[in-house]
Each structure stands twice: as structure tokens, then as C-alpha cells.
Amino acid sequence: MVQEQNNEQAFWQPDRTRAARPRRRRRKLKPTVFVLLLVMLFGIAAFAYALTEKQVELIDDGVSRTVATRANTVGDFLSQQDIALAELDVVEPALDAGLEDKAQVVIRRAFDVAVTADFKTESYPTQPQTVSDFLAANNVVLGEHDWVSPAPDHVLAKGENVVINRITYRQTQVKEAVQPQTVRREDASMNVGQSKVIQEGKAGEKTITSLVTYKDGVPIAKQELSRAVTTEPVDKILAVGTRRVISRGNQTYEYTEVLAMKASAYTHTGSNTASGTKPKAGYTVAVDPAVIPLGSMLYVDGYGYAKAEDTGGAIDGNRIDLFFNSEQECLNWGVRTVRVYVLK
Questions:
Q1: What Cα–Cα distance (Å) separates residue 23 from each residue in 13, 14, 27, 201?
Q2: Is 253 in the same domain as 319?
Q3: Is a pLDDT exceeding 60 seen at residue 295?
Q4: Domain interval for residue 260
């Protein structure tokens, strides 16, 4: 009992050693110093943040703006700006290129070009390139003779369109009639003005070969290549009368020439004619031998059947002098224009 009591006292005995240690005072930071530290920390963070930010010039389809970014690549930069790219849009530098401060990012947007061909129009996106390369890239096939506008070596720009005209060629053959000619054959057995068909004509045939140019199926030009007679025509043969005749009263006279002449009159002088004959009224006439040879048989309208037997100093050229029996008959005749037929 005594032992347990002692142990109990020993258990509850205060620790004098711990009580004898001196207590340290905790130092409290002053509020001003704490604030300064916070400001310094924020400043360092802000400086570090500022060092990672870049100023980038973005030129999108010709429109320029400056953008602040901390993206490391061009692709990240465009993603941060929610900029979508079409399939044929071009970005410079490339999407995986690193991004530096004061860098320039250029986006060249594809533009649509309408192609009209084969009676329809379709649009295709493209970057600037020649018409030839553009058509090849879009599987638009040009025929050997097709027309394209603008020209194949023209570099396309925004707002331009392409028109293709399909050009084809085709040879054609046309049959045409070859009309027969009329061959005239003189026939002295028929009078002038009379004719007779000896052989009927018959049309032949010729073949004309041409090259026709078609533009989108419509003919626009035709070039004759050749023409050949496949069936010869048969000429028409016509007999034409050459006999010249006049009918006066009950008589018919065949003549070789008819002249319009100024006719005067003369009467007896007591001399014979230039032919040595005595002049006869209603028969003897004086002529210019250079026009009508002496001895020619004539028919003079208004005077009758006559013969060129005489000449005269005043009878020159197309003049004729008719013989009458009396001066009164000469006066009655006067001077007039008549037709003189030189008889055969």
C-alpha cells in the first residue's frame, strides 16, 4: 500500500525540468513587409508572364491586325484565335512553324472561280494559278480545238471566271445540180428569130465537200474543201435562124444588112449613072460605095426594090439619093430617114 502510494505520487510529480526551460517569443512579421513581399512576387510573375507574350501581325485575306498571344506555333496561334482554314487556304509560315515576337502570319484565302462549259456552270476553289493549271487541278478537260477565256497562261484572280467553248469540226457533202449549157448553132435555112431544139439538155450533178466548224454544237463557219462533178451535164443544142428576110407586099426579100440612112432625091441630068446605065425611076439609087458597093441590090422602105448604080458628090457615108422622073416628085419626097436593106 505504501509502495503504490509512492508510485502514485511519483506519477503526479510535476516536471520541473520542463518548467525550468525559458520560453522563446515568436516574431510576428510586420504587415508592411508582408505586402512588399506579395508585390514583389506578383511583379516577378507578371514579368515572367510578359516575357512569354508575343505581338503577332495577322494578315487574313488582305486584312491586317496585331494580336497578342503566348502561342508557340502558328497552328496554336490560329486555334487560339478560332480561325478556321478551308482546304485550299494557304498559311505562311507553316502551321508547325515556331512563333516569335513581332512575327507576321499571312493567310491567303482560296476564292471560287466559276467554269462555264458544256451548257453548265460549276464553281471551284483555287489559289492564284494559271487557267491551264486550274482546269487540270479540277479535272476539267480541254479538247484540242476548244476555246478558253481567259487564255490558258493567264493567272486567275479573285472575281474572274472561265468560259470554255467546245469547238468541233465535221466534213459535210452536198449534192448540187449542174445545169446544162445551151449551145446555139446557126441555121441559114431558118429566118432570124426562129429557133429549133435539136438536143434536149440534161442536168448533171456535182458533190461539194466542206469543213463545218461548230461552237458548242452550233455551226459558225463553213470552208469549202473541194467540188467535183460526178455526173456530166448534157448540153442543150438549139438551132438558131440566121436568114434575114423582109416581106413587102407579096414579096419576101432576104437581106444581109439593114442600115438607117438619110434619103434625098434627084432626077434626070442627061448623064448616065456611074455604072454606065441610064437611071430608072423607082429603081436607080446613088450611094457611097464605101458603105454600099455599087451593084448591090437594095430594098428602100418607101421607095421599093432598087439597085446601087450611081454615086454623087454629096452622097457621103450613110446617105442615099433616090432617082425620080421629075423635080416635083423629088420635092414631094424631100429628105427623110429610111431603112435600107442590103439584099442577099
A1: 21, 17, 13, 155
A2: yes
A3: yes
A4: 249-343
Residue 190 lies in a domain: yes
Q: Are residues 232 and 300 in the same domain?
A: no
161 and 230 belong to one structural domain? no
Order of strands across the sheet that contains 162-165: 120-126, 111-117, 162-165, 147-149
Per-residue pLDDT tens digits for 229-283: 999 999 999 999 988 899 888 889 999 999 999 999 999 999 999 999 999 999 9
| Residue found under cell 449534192 | 175
Indicate if 278 and 297 belong to the same structural domain. Answer: yes
Determine whether 340 is exposed, middle or buried from the number of CB atoms within 10 Å of its CB (0-12, 13-18, 19+). Answer: buried
Query: Domain boundary at 108, 124, 142, which?
Result: 108
Per the domain annotation, does 14 fall within a domain?
no
CATH of residue 178: 2.20.230.10
Secondary structure element (H or E) that encloses residue 325, with its range: none
How many beta carbons lie within 10 A of that of residue 41, not counting itself?
A: 10
pLDDT at 11 (0 to 100): 41
pLDDT at 137: 96
Which among 150, 146, 57, 149 is positioned nearest to 107, based on CA atoms? 57
Which CATH number is 97's domain given?
3.10.20.30
Q: What's the pLDDT tens digit per position in 26-38?
A: 555 466 766 777 7
Summarised one tens digit per residue, pLDDT across range 129-187 is: 999 999 999 999 999 999 999 999 999 999 999 999 999 999 999 999 999 999 999 99
Q: How far apart are CA 304 and CA 272, in angstroms?
A: 21
311: in domain: yes
CA dihedral 246, 252, 254, 260 (to 10 degrees): -30
Classify 76 as helix, strand or coil: helix
